[in-house]
Write a structure and sequence with these properties.
Length: 152
Amino acid sequence: MSQTITADKPRRIKPTTLAAIGFAAPLIIYMLIFYVWPLIQNISMSMHRYTRRTFVTGDAPWSGFDIYKEILSNQQFWTILGQTLIFVFASIVFQYSIGLALAVFFNQNFKLSAALRGAFLVPWLLPPMISGTIWQWMMDADSGVINNFVVN
C-alpha cells in the first residue's frame, strides 16, 4: 500500500467568478460605506455618554451597556414604545386597507375608470417630470443658467 503524494495544483479563479466579483464590488463597497460604517458608528456612540460639549469635543466617557439598562428600566420608555407600536400597526392597517379598497374600486370597468387611474399616476409622475424639465432648462445651450455661469 504505497501512497503517492501529488502536489496540489494551485486553483485558478474562473473568469466568470472574477467578473461576478467585479460587478458586485461597487455594491459591496457602497453598502460598507453607507450602511455598515454608520451602523458601527451608531453602536459605538450608543456606548458613550454624550452631552453637547462631549459631542463637539469627542471625549465622551465610555458607559457600555449602562445606558441601555437605564432606558429599559424606565417605565416611560415602555409606555412610549407601546404607543409607537400601536401607531405603527394602526397606520399600516389603514394604509393597506385604503390602498386595497382603492385598487379594487379602480380595477372595475366603469365610465372614466381609465381617466381616474391615470389621474392617480399624476402625483407619482409629477416630481420626475418637473425635475427633468428644470434640469433641461438649466442645461440649455442658449439660455441655460449653468451655461450662463460657465460662459461668463
